[in-house]
User: What shape does this take?
Amino acid sequence: MKYIRDTTGRLSQRPHFEPIELDRECERVVFEFLRAKFGDVRFPIPTDALSILIERDADELDMYADLSGLGADVEGVTEFVPGQKPRVKISKRLSEDSRMENRLRTTLTHEFGHVKFHAPLWQVDTLTADMFGKRPERMSISCKRENIVGAPEYDWMEWQAGYVCGAVLMPHTRVKALATDTLNKDLRQGPVDASSTAAGNLIARLVDSFQVSADAARVRLIKLKVIADRRPGADLFAPDR
Ligand SMILES: [Zn+2]
Assistant: This one.
């Protein structure tokens, strides 16, 4: 991780992570958490456990928030408060409807990304505040449905939270092991076409193994370069630069 200038104006400087750094840290956190809670590492992660993961590092988690005033497509909010732990709100539309469970799971893990990787920037001591040039001000980020699993790279906060969402629900070593087995090939040979039958079979296995939507599984496989979407304009999920 390194600090670079924040062109969105939220902070003077912001953290830049290589995807592999996020993958390794998320896998470490998730494996440790599951081992401590359940005695072993098994997937899919239970939905309840995802909220416990947030509660460990947040002051408040409201699972039944009315976020309709922020726009129809806002499903989660993380509020960063200087010197305090963050506060997280999840739309009640997701928590109250069991048909929305996959969306609830991705929204929880997306907000966990903000809690784990961004909230510490608001808990800075005076020394760190000097490095940022000023103390960050209180801020809320409203997370829209289309950015939960993958956001354009110009919005670094949403991009990183989207990456974390996939990395927590579908840890990289587990996905790669499934991919090697399903595709029956060495992944170093390069990605397979996202529209192929083999890619479709692999997406189905991820959906089953990790309790995610086909869309979330597909985005995760593209980010890990296991499959590639070769359609024009499909580079939406390019890494954070
Ligand atoms: Zn977000």
Remarks:
- Residues 19-38 form the longest helix (20 residues).
- The chain has a mean pLDDT of 91.
